[in-house]
Amino acid sequence: MPIAHHVMLRTEERRVLVPSVAQRRALAAAVHGVAGRTLLAFRGSDTHVHLLLLADRVSPGRTAQALAVALHARLGLRAPFEPARIKPVANQSHLESAFDYILRQDERHGFGSDPWHDASVLPDLLGLRALGGDVQERVQEHLPRVEHRRLIALLGVEALHAGRDAGLAQEAATAAAALTRLAGHAPRTVEARRALVAYLDGLGARQDLGRRAAWRLRKLPADPKLVRAIALQVGFREDLRARWAVEEPERLATAQVTTHSASCETPGGTSPSLPARRPLQRGARRGTWEGVGETGFEPATSTV
164 versus 300: which is more confidently predicted? Predict the structure, then answer.
């Protein structure tokens, strides 16, 4: 009996599936909503999406079908999906290699249009996004050899920390909640605004919201995971932009265009591919998973 399934979905036209920041974030929200407690990993490539799902009473085919329906609704796709390609994962070694393969899709296919990894499980695993669920704990349980520092390396930075650039806060808040704008009354949007206010309050920064709007948001406590995700998203953007400014200024300009397109909900630009990184699973038989502290990453107190 398989312990998991590797699922791949693409449309019959095999066109680019999620060309904009808005669509990549919609993909992430759809995957979380459909896969739920079976999700171990996902990555939206240029023309397709890969998922790694734990074996469950619900067949992977039905999950794939439900995801196809959700993606049609959220992304406005016209072409139908091909029948899902489903590969059983027979053992632990296969599970580890499938996890590694899925997270390295941008290296395999040479696309660089998603430098912030909005269409990837990486932000969920590293505390950069708070969509609910327990995928981080699930990966710790089923893939204990995955090293935290290897996951961070895939982002293109050396470490994650809580940033303090208030100018990046709104962009970070939309990414942390898989949104493209903070206007509206949907529960996730309101929670993102509340967390943004809490983050800016912590910095002592000026609020762009009116006094009354900020007062209403402060009446209820903000989700600490979402506040922390915003802080980490700000730090991630600070570090990656600084690296781009030194290495390839044109990449920074492209990222700024892409960010602007997210706020306007229009297709984003592209960015050159990130350099290849080392494999995720190496070293000791049982690795450690570093926990996320209130202000960033702190050394793990125990091994998984």
Answer: 164
Contact in structure between 33 and 44 (CB atoms under 8 Å): no
What pLDDT, in 10s, does the model give residues 31-43? Answer: 999 999 999 999 9
- Joined tokens for residue 1: 């009996």
Residues 41 and 103: beta-carbon distance below 8 Å: yes
Residue from 230, 243, 239, 238 nearest 292 by CA: 230
- Spell out the residues 6+ positions from residue 184 whose beta carbon is closer than 8 angstroms to its own: none
Burial of 36 (0-12, 13-18, 19+ CB in 10 A): middle
| Identity of residue 121 | V
Residues 6+ apart with CB under 8 A from 62: none
Task: Give the residue from 173, 155, 163 showing the smallest Cα distance to 244.
Answer: 155
Residue 272: pLDDT band by 50, 70, 90 thresholds? very low
Which strand (E) or helix (H) includes residue 184?
A: none
What is 202-268 written as a DSSP string?
A: HHTPPPSS-HHHHHHHHTSPPPHHHHHHHHHHHHHHHHHHHHHHHH-HHHHHHHHHHHHHHHHTS--
SS3 111: coil
Tens of pLDDT along 107-154? 776 567 899 999 999 999 999 999 977 999 999 999 999 999 999 999
Structure tokens at 111: 């696309």
What are the pLDDT digits (tens) for 223-247? 999 999 999 999 999 999 998 888 8
Six token digits for residue 282: 């190496």
Buried b (16+ CB within 10 A) or exposed e, 184-208: eeeebbebbbbbbbbbbebeeeeee
Residues pairing with 51 in the sheet: 7, 42
Work out the average pLDDT over 161-178.
97
- Tokens read off for 203: 């910095």
CA–CA dist 223, 32 (Å, integer): 18
**Residue 259 pLDDT exceeds 50:** yes
Let me know: does 169 contact 303? Beta carbons within 8 Å: no
